[in-house]
């Protein structure tokens, strides 16, 4: 028996203890992947190879392989906490410009809004979004939370569904000409908020007057004025131009005529945004959509039921401050704003490797590419074999503590047994020495 065999066993048992101890130490480390010590026996060989009766020369550490099995995903509540459910790695750029790969999704924003790891030393990589919120799948870039205000957008269209009660009495407009200040001169009214180029809100009110059994007149005022800013009543005044709505016997809209033009979409052109202070109107210097505001009137009916209007849908909005962040399963980051708008500000990229075992551990729960791992492939979550993103959650370590404690006992027993072989070899050597 050779002392070297026992020494190699002690070395192997010691390495097994190191690997097991490292697993146990990281049982609570987010995104940690357990390792396994793999051993191979040693045979002495000559030029003619090993014979049938050859005795091994011990054991050596063949590899320390990492187990990239899925860890449990638990909710954490962190706004930028993310977990990967499935395959793939988050991509980070270190302070030296090199790329790192991790399963730890404990991210946060730094003072400049960049999304970094929990130590603030590496930035999360992904795809940028343009000003309209469209994801640009070009090269990887540092993901950044744009904390600036969302610029306002001038209204260009209004769309809604409504019904006018066919049982309403007819109003004689000769005897009672339309007056927005006299409720007896109109049947009902609808209000919609419009926005100019500076994000100022302007109430647009449509007054509807039943003039015949199947006919209604609609008068459209903005800020209580005609769209061009002139007063609809008083002196001087410009009477508003009505839109005549005609329905068939079944209560369905057949035509909308405005100024001699028949179109179910009323285009409000020439609007001059302004403000009214103490009854005095003045232009506020903002612009309106030069093509006009298209008010869809095609979804109006006249049934014998209560007059109603569903909430209008408009595309304009005021200036918005960021109020929250949402991340969907495909890794798209949506910013929500105080003006009820939301916009994509970027998308996370995940990396995959042909040989994950070839990755080199780089500390801080990260790995780096090696020749053995192959080059990484980048794509969005849920693409191909890549997993999905679970927001406000973290992936726990995949260490099974019960198995590790059992392996700890085995390694200790292996160490004691190999120490015993050395002790036995020493006893034999002493016997031989005494015989001489």
Automatic annotation (TrEMBL):
GO terms for cellular component: bacterial-type flagellum basal body; bacterial-type flagellum hook; cytosol. The keyword Plastid does not apply. The keyword Flavoprotein does not apply. One of its GO terms (biological process) is bacterial-type flagellum-dependent swarming motility. Residues 392-435 form the Flagellar basal-body/hook protein C-terminal domain. InterPro entries: Falgellar_hook_FlgE_sf, Flag_bb_rod_N, Flagellar_basal_body_rod_CS, Flagellar_FlgE/F/G, Flg_bb/hook_C_dom, FlgE/F/G-like, FlgE_D2, LlgE_F_G-like_D1. Keywords: Bacterial flagellum, Cell projection, Cilium, Flagellum. Residues 4-33 form the Flagellar basal body rod protein N-terminal domain. It is found in: Bacterial flagellum basal body. Residues 223-244 are annotated as: Disordered. Belongs to the flagella basal body rod proteins family. This is Flagellar hook protein FlgE. It comes from Pseudomonas extremorientalis.
